[in-house]
Amino acid sequence: MQYTSTRGAATRVDFRTVVLSGLAEDGGLYVPVSLPQFSANEIANWSWLPFDELAWRVISPFVGDSIDEASLRSLVSDSYSRFRHRAIAPLQQIGHNEWVLQLFHGPTRASKDFAAQLQMRLVQHFLGENGDRAMLVGASNGDTAVAAIEALDACPGARLLALYPRTGTPGDRMAILQAADSGRVCALAVDGSFDDCQSLVSRLFRQWPLPDVVPISFNSTNWVGVLAQIVFYFHAALQLGGGLRPVGFSVPAASFAEIYAGFIAQKMGLPINQIIVSTNRNDALHQFIHSNRYNTGSSSHTLSPAMDFSLFSNLERFVWELYERNGPATRALMEHFEYCGELSIGNRQWLQARMLFDSYAVGDAQTREEIATLFRETGCAVDPHTATGAFAGRLHRRNIGAPMVTLGQIAPEKSAALLAELGAWHGEVPASAALGAPARVLGRDDLQGLGEILAQLQAGR
Ligand SMILES: *Cc1c(COP(=O)(O)O)cnc(C)c1O
């Protein structure tokens, strides 16, 4: 499989280059030049496959001949070896034809484990003994960085630099990040928002200062982050009717990557009749889907912190698809967006998106209510992110006959204190982590300071 850039100017590259990358050379994101297509019958034939085997079928066409079959099979299968549920991603029923796909049985109890575990193994496969040339870099509100650090064992030479917002990152995640600071890992608090962290990382990738070090994005700016999530949709649909029956999804917008992965799964032939994007009151994506007006702006803290931002890098891949893979058109839109923080796509492209997508912004009060009601009526404890999805899914489903699956991306015990307050938790509530002040705090525009920290990390100081 060959890849190109959403901004059109980069030459074509193979899967290896994509794995070992941050941004494409022209500042765009890597995308596959074509998508594998499967017929409904082909997909239905996979209904008996265990999760890892299904994952290999979905992933392998994107890898092409960059990795031989036996190595890829074992690498993919190994990615799920640390999950604590036999089904890897079990479905839990929460209502009539309503389900939660539990994506939180990995080592850090969040869906980001799927991408992180796969990515580190791919990096190790490609770099081997030169693993010490890899520098994984990314912005995170907590979950992605924690998952990446946990997966770093699979790539023993690599180093990792994570930027997180000084306020807004949940305390338990922040404690893990502070404790992870070591010769190989630098977790850096930024005096700003998630969006500020994300912008710093993008600028760093565009002006990468270390010529001998390979910069790799550890979130789904890197295609692997998307690829790992396409599997979710195939798995859920196959469990609920063998791929012949349309299924709807409701996706809490913790980034646009998981939403875009669903869009890609549908383009590959999976019968998905609807994708609902749920946000909290930071509703940039809801405004985009609902009114074709996407604005970045300040985001406020809510009960669902993984959704408290407005810069969604995978939107660029989505725009590129909607514009029939037109690089120059995508570049013009994204440069305009970077310049003024606003994006509206053509009416034709927007209507095409609306064929599949609906959206809804769920406030904190509704989120609390949903957590309490679900627990009272079903005994299921869900975390606040999942609750926004379950609520939006029930409200906006188009077809009562099609199963509605909410992606459950974070384990409920991570919000045990809140759930206990709402009467939706009978287990233990862990004491909140003791937090010291971060050792250093980077200014939100301090690209030079970031470069110095990066050089120290590489030198092992
Ligand atoms: C996962 C992801 C996020 C959210 O990161 P968290 O650490 O879960 O807050 C944001 N952007 C991208 C591209 C991601 O893949």
TrEMBL record:
Protein name: Threonine synthase
InterPro entries in alphabetical order: Thr_synth_N (IPR029144), Thr_synth_N_sf (IPR037158), Thr_synthase-like (IPR004450), Threonine_Synthase (IPR051166), TrpB-like_PALP (IPR001926), TrpB-like_PALP_sf (IPR036052)
Keyword Lyase appears in the UniProt entry: yes
Organism listed in the record: Pseudomonas knackmussii (strain DSM 6978 / CCUG 54928 / LMG 23759 / B13)
Protein keywords: Lyase, Pyridoxal phosphate
Gene3D superfamilies cross-referenced by the UniProt entry: 3.40.50.1100, Threonine synthase, N-terminal domain
SUPFAM superfamilies listed in its UniProt record: Tryptophan synthase beta subunit-like PLP-dependent enzymes
Residue span(s) of domain Tryptophan synthase beta chain-like PALP: 92-343
GO molecular function: threonine synthase activity
Modified residues (N6-(pyridoxal phosphate)lysine): 112
NCBIfam families on file: thrC (TIGR00260)
Entry EC number(s): 4.2.3.1
Protein family per UniProt: Belongs to the threonine synthase family.
GO biological process: threonine biosynthetic process
Superkingdom classification of source: Bacteria
CDD domains recorded: Thr-synth_2 (cd01560)
Cofactor section: pyridoxal 5'-phosphate
